[in-house]
Amino acid sequence: MAAIEPRPGSMSSVLTAVLLGSVASTTLNDGWYAYHGNPAAVDGKHPTIQMVSEAVTVIVGDESSDVVTDFVFHNSGAATTVRMGFPDGGANDDANEARHTKSGVMTDFRSTVDGRPVKTRFVSDRAIQKRLEYPRWQVKDVPFARGQTRKIRNTYGVSHGADAATGTPVLSVVSYIVSTGRTWKGTIKSATFSFTFTKKALPIMPRFLIERDFDDVDRLRSFWTENRDAVLYRGPGSVRKDGRTITFSVKDFVPRTDIFLKFRPRFS
Fold first, then answer.
1. What are the b/e assignments for 44-57, b being 16+ CB within 10 Å?
2. Contact by Cβ (8 Å): 14, 7
3. Among 50, 10, 80, 59, residue whose Cα is nearest residue 245
4. pLDDT at residue 63, rounded to an integer
């Protein structure tokens, strides 16, 4: 039986040491986040096409990130064409949502299929939102022959979100929506999500800490004042920390949990 994303098993020392965090799910109480991430079969769960693997690399800058995503898909059935969408909007802030009704949050978005550039079209679709929560997408039609495996690559930039729950300082939010990948056949066999914090984002070496829920805003505000090197994270699977990079790895899973990382930007 496939896993529904294993919880990080090696984090007990962090769990006991860190009793902090604010709400970080697909909503933020005071702020907004960019929703971009895994491709979806936007017309409904596909019966024959599986996302076999994915590798996501995010280079975190001071106000935005550069993203490279690589996906492998396999069609186990007859020839078919799927309408594949990539989430592209801002959530939880009316002003930002209004600004992204005709274009998304991703900049210089480029997509290839088996190494060949393919154009996408930006759509804002309430019918898709009913199925997948998010209304705004970059969409393209991808044909598959019987038994065909195809490789999809996307590159783009995206601005950081903001979390003002503590008042001051306002935190930067780096996000990646994993759960939209649940629309493909079966499970995702393997996935890695790697985030590297440049010195522009954090001049000092980051200290990655798992985020915990609690409502003590005063304590959280004090934490950020005293810990400028901290990056609070939430995400699926096992976690590896290496210098300025944190990587989430998951195998044989149905994606349910999205990735959020919060840090205090150098200009705050």
1. eebebbbbbbbebb
2. no
3. 59
4. 93
